[in-house]
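Q: A reviewer asked whether we had any structural model of the full assembly, not just the individual parts. We don't, so I'm hoping you can provide one. Inputs are below.
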Amino acid sequence: MRLLDKRNLMFVAAVALSACGNMQGGGADIKQLSTVIFQDTPEVSVSAQELTRQLRQQATSQANAHFLVLDVPVFGVAAPFSLSGTNRDVDTYLTSSGVSVSLRNGLLVATRGLGFDLMTADVTETLVALGANEDRPVRIHRYLDGDNQIITNSFVCSLERPDVDVIIERCVSTYLAFENTYNFDMNGGIIASEQWVSPQIGMIGITMIN
Amino acid sequence: MHVGREGFWHSRSALFTAASVWMLASVSLLQAQETAVDFTDSYNLYGTIGLIDLPTASSADDAELAATIGHFAGTTRTTLSFQITPRLSGSFRYSHIKNAPEIGGIGLYDRSFDLRYRLMDEGPVRPSVMIGLQDIVGTGVYAAEYIVSSKHLTPALMVTGGIGWGRLGSYNGFDNPLRALDDRFATRPGGTTGRGGQFETSKWFRGDAALFGGLSWQATDDLNIKAEYSSDAYARERSPQNDLFERNSPLNFGLSYALSENTALQAHYLYGAEFGAGLTFTLNPRKPVIIGGSGQRPTPVVPRQRQTGNAVAWTAQPDGQDILRDSMIRLLEFEGMSLEAMALSPTSVTVLVRNETYMAGSEAIGRTARILTRVMPASVEHFTIVPVVGGIRTVAVDLQRSDIEELEFAPDNAWKSFARAKLRDAAATDANTVLNPDLYRRLFWRIGPYFAATYFDPDSPIRGAVGLELAARYDIAPGVSISGNLRKRFFGNIGDGRESDSVIQRVRTDGPLYAAEGDPALTQLVANYQFNVSPDYYARFTGGYLEAMYGGLSAEVLWKPVQSRLGIGAEINYAHQRDFDQLFGFQDYNVITGHASAYYAFANNFHGQIDVGRYLAGDFGTTVSLDREFENGWRVGAFATLTDVSFDEFGEGSFDKGLRFSIPLEHFFGRPSRDTNQFTLRPLTRDGGARLNVPNRLYETIRENHANDLRGSWGRFWR
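A: Here is a predicted structure for the entire assembly that you could use as a starting point for your response.
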């Protein structure tokens, strides 16, 4: 929540300082400000569960549309994302407000537009381990640092199956640790998950609609 | 002052008494609280990393900028420090020392400059060692040199001891041990060389030396408690002229409390007599508010289907090119860019793109590449992206569409995509391009607030003005434009400065007159033409009201190959001095001015520039500039100009010099923006070594898209 408050403050400050005109440069630009994260997402006040229920009802009538609901607790926001396309085995989902998440067989491999984004994640070993009951997969995350350089974090993980359709992945690196949870459907696909993005964004919830 | 051996031992015993009492107290406290706290180096009254009034051997985080205002006993010091490299730091200070009440007057405003270099890092056993030069230029009110050493006895407790000369050798001093090297070290010469502003090397490490030291204990994560034994006698402040305080004791006590990650408050009890306080703001260019920015997501790559049928059937469609071009325009605009022109063949496409949003050229290129995968027919495999800045085609980036498809989510996609991209000169890339008709013969304008400031006037440390600025640009054709700025001041005191006392042609010291009379002020109105001459060569012609004080004509040519770290340029100008009201009239003075310039991007992100030529007052000379640059757009640098204007004619300060800053606003707001706040801090503005401010200089126009800058920020390609 702290992050969100900061952004709201910045938004107010930016509006106060803003200029008008059709030329870039100088003061803040109203058009750009309108893309402040999730600002034009009407579902802000709706919980992820409620949103999921509503969308599942609608989805029965739109069989070809693919959606997920993304819950970002650090912003206190949940929003529907629609499938934009698939490159090889990675699906990218978008909101109209300028955020995207990319999933490889349900595992988060990239975010854009959240700030503190996950640039790429190499989850090859994790994917194998989830299917084959193997342990100690290594996953490698890449981030931008404050000076536009790519930094790499590698995590050693362990898998636990508390239930037949649930896997918990616990990962540690030198300074960081997180715990992802995956819920599977009958076909072995991930239908809901909580996955870690970055130290600042923390966990996000992903619920597949269809 | 000569105190001799007795003083030496006296000072040592006092130091050790204080130290042992303090240590006992802190050790007992430490036992009570064994939890590890992060030791935070804090800033002292001089605005450098240190204790209370004394330095330590610690450095700030690399690249940290710190602004400190500290006050005690009629002395106020405002300091800006920068950790230039991990070992080297510099500080610029503007201080005020009050006069004694019976003397009155405004007291002394003084500028000082320090350098500190960490010779040795702290190890498990060995301490860190720092050598420092305080107030090294000019009058030397705060002149002192020191070698200081610090060691953490526990993670939370640091002990510091050092030897100082100058001010720091003025209390309980002893014969300079460096006399063993040369007898000249025995005495410290007085006075200031010439008109000030010069390095006073003849004084460094000379005269009596003295010992100083102290302790710094991190009590909690936010609170640092300090005690020190000072070897500064404060002779000037205690003289009849100032008579600011009684120095009853060499011991100072203080604390530094972190109000937030970037703000620290200090409170002190100094010299057994005075309370003091300080406030420090820190800012690290490498730590923006939102890492990676809050800019919206890019267009996802759309991979081609394996079976694409009759691949080039689309070429037969008469309006095919227009449809594709319109799609490019729309998608680029959605991401804050504009399509200048496009050339399409069955297997390749060249797009000329204007980046109006992203600080990193690589991000604009990466976003454009992904948009191309969405728009272009499957047969188009070769993408050439040409970022255009002010009509100049800065570089041609050749990318293979199959690489973009393959690397979108590849683990090491940033480096791989750079390795596979080909950067080449773009002078020849406009063949067959279809211009975007909407970008030209069109007025762009903006109205918004402005803030202007001048610093270090003898009567007022800072003067400012706030008002409204109208900026407008009319693009006639690629590289051909008319642009202007009009300012209307609402309030401010920027025009209240003293009248110039310059003995040479007044080319800059009339600034206060311009500020007072220019309301409203036409600060710029120019016609500009700039273009690619041939591969590696660029040229510019500018005419009109070039800047607030001068109008005229300017011509420039630049050689800068895409892959080269070196650029060489030449500029010649006719400058005519404008009327103070900054409208359309001119005064009598005019001059031919111009420079040959060499620019070099060093591998360690330092950037150097040398300009040789004739300045506004007709003086001939050289300007040397050195900046530390960051891949996110920050720049912090310094410059100095020496010309054939003698130091005496130049006046106070002897020659032109200053610090300059480029601060991207994205750092503070997170949203993508190319806006930077640029400002220059000059200790004094005089008339020697003054350069004409010409808009649209070529090197800054093109360099962001050349290999060195693109490589540095290529991590942004996939943002």
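A: Points you may want to mention in the reply: Chain B touches chain A through 59 residues (CB under 8 Å). DSSP finds eleven helices and 32 strands in chain B.
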